[in-house]
């Protein structure tokens, strides 16, 4: 029996549990938690510079780690435990992780930007190494021996002669370590590592396969009510009237309201669903969105907050004017929904002026402040406890459902579970902002790149994360700053060494959409334009796309991933143009495309080759094969790294080929998988990943880097197959067919 058949036939076991002491006093100095073995461990410090803020050792030697970062299904729980176990020298199975609990963990920022291992893991690693050094020194002092006379194996300190030994648990005896975290503490040399760099099975998978793992959607509290929030007719709509008589016949149903925030509650889930469907509500609804077919015109017409110069080298204007050959192009990337497979869910319990929320938020510490504002509380009176939810890809950095649950619980005076529906998720999650990029390039008489000019039109950041306009906050009458995503100018400037370069980023003041980061924000859009247009210059110069990049990319690690992926994919002059495979239908032609990125221009290196099969009759594009070379420095868990790369590739293929937000003047209209399709299992390509491990280097992220290469690689592959340049995502059949229709007259067409 295969795994899919097993899962289909075995059903699922739903597990619920309760936690004692929902919200400890904010003034408590020693915080406690119950580890996986049921023992109480003491967290004696909330000072970042103290090891006790990051880990605790129980009398039996088990280690509890307190991480402000969370595991979004990425395997971070396992990788972080590997890093701690390695440096502390304890068995991997003795490490338990507490993640994202605002009472027990310190604020390490959002779990975003592929920084969990790079930043969050680095802190935990140094805390573990500091603890190990201090414990060995403590034993050396007690036994009157030198540190060099001692060894540590599996949490046991022993003399090299083997005549004396003591375990960490006995040594610590349940007391605080009272050890300073040394930011420069030496870490293990690569040759001494036993866990880091090795594939360790994810600790969460067995429970998820058997149904014993508690997801956010599984969590229950005794006596809780089920709620549904009644969404407005559209963004900014005002609530005019509510006909409570329309649901009078439903037993146990209640209504709560605060200005334009409206929710129904029921003792049962189905009762809440029925009440939400039957409740008659009138809204004052005004137009909010521009016409969909004029989105980019509207976008470019928004006021510019500021123009930043990302690169300015040489005299680009003069060089372009004197170029032997000159090219211009515009690239566009639309807003997308996050497309979480499981709609959001949260449970909240408001009592005695304090609120505890169980949430799948990516940023529990910032959400703590956001919800405090919504409830009119101080931040210390709100506690967020993280539970794993569905894949969120940036959406849960601003977790609306948690604020919904908290406000409903406050208004109802009871513990509440709020479950979003598919229409809530597709219609009301904050979207990724659109992006438009104008590019111009010139070649000299020897067909070498002479000049590069690019102008990026992106959303500017306004406000802080804690000022994000959560739905419950703004509909309940609390004004919030118009926050839009930041850092999306990253990767606007190119790494290729050209003599004349001008790159400007036009940061627009607003967006029609409530926006949030979506996997590889900005980098994906910017690398799409840069890598596709660099290919256009290569074509104009009659150059091989691979050699063209190598000729102008001096960084040896950048060259290494390009050369590695070329070897992996068998790249040559023949594969760089249209290919026909034996057995393909007559209307199908194939092509390969190449793209490179160094994420943020200062982190992970990725080069990708992919092959597309294009049906020239119906315009359908399918990615059949992907080869990816990936250098994220020191690899913590190879299998986990590979999983992240593969998942990012699949999701981005979906975004590029299929996903398109639909909306009218009043609201988003793509509210289900029929109107907002995503890639299905039969269309997932073969993916081959080559990991370049650099054990002596620092570890960088892997979750968002490979996606930045995918849009350009697909565009370049389609051009190799058909001669049509696709510059506006998504690459839907009508766009390709329009390009093919224009191709005979123009030779090489655009769409």
Helix/strand-derived class?
Answer: alpha+beta
At the first level of CATH, the class of the largest domain is Alpha Beta
Poorly predicted residue ranges: 1-39
Strand content: 15-25%
Shape: globular
Strand order of the largest sheet: 11-12-9-19-16-17-18
Summarize the topology:
Elements: H1 3-10, E1 31-34, E2 40-43, E3 55-57, E4 63-67, H2 76-88, E5 95-99, H3 116-143, E6 150-153, E7 156-159, E8 165-167, H4 168-172, H5 205-210, E9 225-229, E10 238-243, E11 254-258, E12 261-266, H6 269-278, E13 280-284, H7 295-301, E14 304-313, H8 316-321, E15 325-333, E16 345-351, E17 354-359, H9 364-375, E18 382-386, H10 400-412, E19 416-419, H11 422-428, E20 435-443, E21 449-459, H12 471-475, E22 500-508, H13 523-541, H14 545-551, H15 556-569, E23 588-598, E24 605-615, E25 621-631, H16 638-657, E26 686-691, H17 710-722, E27 724-725, H18 733-746, E28 749-750
Parallel strand pairs: 4-5, 9-19, 17-18, 21-22, 25-26, 27-28
Antiparallel strand pairs: 1-2, 3-4, 6-7, 7-8, 9-12, 10-13, 11-12, 14-22, 15-20, 16-17, 16-19, 20-21, 23-24, 24-25
Helix pairs in contact: 2-3, 9-10, 13-17
Question: Any descriptors?
Answer:
Aldehyde Oxidoreductase, domain 4; alpha+beta; 18 helices; globular
Can you give a write-up of this model?
With 751 residues, this protein is α+β, with helices and mostly antiparallel strands. It has 4 domains: 31-210, Aldehyde oxidase/xanthine dehydrogenase, molybdopterin binding domain (Aldehyde Oxidoreductase, domain 4, 2-Layer Sandwich), CATH 3.30.365.10; 217-286 and 340-428, Aldehyde Oxidoreductase, domain 4, CATH 3.30.365; 291-337 and 431-466 and 477-521, Aldehyde Oxidoreductase, domain 4, CATH 3.30.365.10; 544-750, Aldehyde Oxidoreductase, domain 4 (2-Layer Sandwich), CATH 3.30.365.10. It has 18 helices and 28 strands. Strands 11-12-9-19-16-17-18 form a 7-stranded mixed sheet, with helices on both faces. Strand 7 (156-159) and strand 8 form a beta hairpin. The longest helix is centred in the N-terminal third of the chain and has 28 residues, at 116-143. It is globular and about 80 Å long. The two termini are 47 Å apart. The model is unreliable at 1-39 (pLDDT under 50).
């Amino acid at each position: 029996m295969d795994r899919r058949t097993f899962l289909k036939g075995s059903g699922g076991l739903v597990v619920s549990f309760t936690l004692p002491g929902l919200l400890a006093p904010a003034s408590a100095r020693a915080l406690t938690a119950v580890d996986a073995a049921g023992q109480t461990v003491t967290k004696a410090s909330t000072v970042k510079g103290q090891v006790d803020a990051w880990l605790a050792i129980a009398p039996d030697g088990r280690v509890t780690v307190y991480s402000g970062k969370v595991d979004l299904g990425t395997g971070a729980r396992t990788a972080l435990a590997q890093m701690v176990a390695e440096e502390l020298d304890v068995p991997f199975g003795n490490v338990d992780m507490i993640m994202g609990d605002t009472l027990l963990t310190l604020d390490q920022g959002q779990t975003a930007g592929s920084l969990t291992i790079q930043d969050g893991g680095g802190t935990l690693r140094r805390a573990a190494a500091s603890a190990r050094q201090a414990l060995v020194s403590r034993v050396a002092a007690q036994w009157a021996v030198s540190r060099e006379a001692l060894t540590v194996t599996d949490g046991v300190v022993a003399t090299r002669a083997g005549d004396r030994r003591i375990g960490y648990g006995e040594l610590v005896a349940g007391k605080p370590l009272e050890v300073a975290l040394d930011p420069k503490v030496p870490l293990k040399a690569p040759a001494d590592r036993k866990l880091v760099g090795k594939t360790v099975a994810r600790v969460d998978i067995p429970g998820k396969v058997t149904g014993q793992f508690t997801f956010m959607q599984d969590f229950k509290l005794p006596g809780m009510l089920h709620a549904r929030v009644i969404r407005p007719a559209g963004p900014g709509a005002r609530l005019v009237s509510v006909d409570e008589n329309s649901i009078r016949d439903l037993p146990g149903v209640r209504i709560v309201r605060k200005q334009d925030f409206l929710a129904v509650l029921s003792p049962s889930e189905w009762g809440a669903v029925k009440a939400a469907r039957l409740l008659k509500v009138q809204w004052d609804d005004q137009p909010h969105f521009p016409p969909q077919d004029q989105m980019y015109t509207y976008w470019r017409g928004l006021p510019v907050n500021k123009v930043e110069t990302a690169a300015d080298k040489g005299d680009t204007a003069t060089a372009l004017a004197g170029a032997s050959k000159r090219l211009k192009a515009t690239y566009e990337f639309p807003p997308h929904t996050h497309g979480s497979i499981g709609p959001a869910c949260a449970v909240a319990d408001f009592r005695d002026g304090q609120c505890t929320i169980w949430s799948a938020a990516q940023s529990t510490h910032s959400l703590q402040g956001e919800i405090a504002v919504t409830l009119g509380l101080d931040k210390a009176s709100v506690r967020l406890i993280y539970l794993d939810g569905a894949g969120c890809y940036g959406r849960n950095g601003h977790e609306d459902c948690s604020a919904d649950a908290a406000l409903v619980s406050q208004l109802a005076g009871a513990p509440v579970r709020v479950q979003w529906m598919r229409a809530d998720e597709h219609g009301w999650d904050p979207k990724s902002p659109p992006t438009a990029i104008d590019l111009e390039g010139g070649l000299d008489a020897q067909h070498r790149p002479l000049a590069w000019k690019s102008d990026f039109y992106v959303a500017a950041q306004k406000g802080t994360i804690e000022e994000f306009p959560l739905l419950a906050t703004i509909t309940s009458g609390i004004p919030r700053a118009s926050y839009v995503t930041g850092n999306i100018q990253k990767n606007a400037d190119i790494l290729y060494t050209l003599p004349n370069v001008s790159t400007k980023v036009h940061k627009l003041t607003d967006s029609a959409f409530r926006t949030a980061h979506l996997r590889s924000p900005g980098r994906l859009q910017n690398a799409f334009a840069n890598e596709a247009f660099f290919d256009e210059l290569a074509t104009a110069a009659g150059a091989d796309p691979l050699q063209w990049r190598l000729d102008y990319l001096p960084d040896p690690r950048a060259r290494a991933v390009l050369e590695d992926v070329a070897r992996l994919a068998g790249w040559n002059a023949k594969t760089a143009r249209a290919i026909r495979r034996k057995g393909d239908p007559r209307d199908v032609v194939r092509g390969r495309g190449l793209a490179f990125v160094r994420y943020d221009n200062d982190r992970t290196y990725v080069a990708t080759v992919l092959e597309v099969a294009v049906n020239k009759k119906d315009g359908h594009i399918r990615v059949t094969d992907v080869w990816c070379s990936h250098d994220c420095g020191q690899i913590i868990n190879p299998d986990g790294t590979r999983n992240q790369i593969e998942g990012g590739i699949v999701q981005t293929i979906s975004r590029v080929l299929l996903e398109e937000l639909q909306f009218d003047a009043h609201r988003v209209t793509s509210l289900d998988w029929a109107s907002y399709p995503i890639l299905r299992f039969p269309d997932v390509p073969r993916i081959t990943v080559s990991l370049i491990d650099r054990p002596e280097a620092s570890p960088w992220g892997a979750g968002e880097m490979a996606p930045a290469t995918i849009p350009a690689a697909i565009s370049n592959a389609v051009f190799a197959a058909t001669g049509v340049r696709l510059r506006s995502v998504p690459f839907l059949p009508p766009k390709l067919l329009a390009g093919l229709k224009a191709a005979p007259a123009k030779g090489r067409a655009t769409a």
